[in-house]
């Protein structure tokens, strides 16, 4: 069965972006980049992968879920950030039609359960924090690219919700000289 994987860069203090969606403080150079590019080329924006000659075979992910704010980040430079994947943007806003893009106001958890029942590669939850909070119970795996930076404020990994502790098991940790630490967790099955 397909997994919903929340794969995201995060600061030490738990933010995935600054207060206005800034993400330029994250580290984009260093030994972690080659590792991440080789391991998850499908998570690289399409136009960047094309410029760098990186093959995107949709082996790890073939679908990406984004909130409207996360989706909008890539629009100034390219028509659609992940047009090599099936993209679902959760919003009530009208967005211009794009290749492989579905804009929906549907309940995210309902759609994810439908997607998990279909054949295919894993489903990537790209962001943001509000969408992650809505999908909290559906996330099977967390892959956090923890950057050695403190934001102090911004968009949290998960938007505040109700108190409902959930146990996760760490399955991998990879530390890089750049200071980035890749942490991977799977939801504990009770």
From TrEMBL:
GO terms for biological process: riboflavin biosynthetic process. GO terms for molecular function: 5-amino-6-(5-phosphoribosylamino)uracil reductase activity. Residues 4-182 form the Bacterial bifunctional deaminase-reductase C-terminal domain. It comes from the Bacteria. This is Dihydrofolate reductase family protein. It comes from Dietzia timorensis. The lineage of its organism: Bacteria, Bacillati, Actinomycetota, Actinomycetes, Mycobacteriales.
């Amino acid at each position: 069965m397909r997994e919903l994987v929340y794969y995201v860069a995060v600061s030490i203090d738990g933010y995935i972006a600054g207060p206005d969606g800034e993400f330029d403080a994250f580290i984009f150079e260093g030994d972690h980049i080659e590792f991440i590019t080789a391991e998850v080329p499908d998570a690289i924006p399409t136009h960047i992968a094309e410029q760098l000659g990186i093959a995107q075979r949709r082996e790890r992910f073939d679908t990406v879920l984004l909130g409207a704010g996360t989706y909008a980040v890539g629009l100034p430079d390219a028509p659609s950030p992940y047009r090599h994947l099936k993209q679902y943007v959760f919003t009530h806003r009208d967005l211009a039609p794009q290749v492989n893009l579905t804009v929906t106001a549907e309940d995210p958890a309902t759609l994810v359960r439908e997607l998990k029942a279909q054949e295919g590669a894993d489903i990537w939850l790209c962001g943001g924090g509000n969408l992650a909070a809505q999908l909290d119970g559906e996330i099977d795996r967390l892959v956090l690219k923890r950057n050695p930076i403190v934001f102090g404020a911004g968009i949290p990994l998960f938007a505040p919700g109700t108190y409902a502790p959930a146990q996760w098991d760490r399955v991998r940790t990879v530390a890089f000289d750049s200071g980035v630490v890749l942490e991977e967790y799977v939801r504990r099955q009770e």
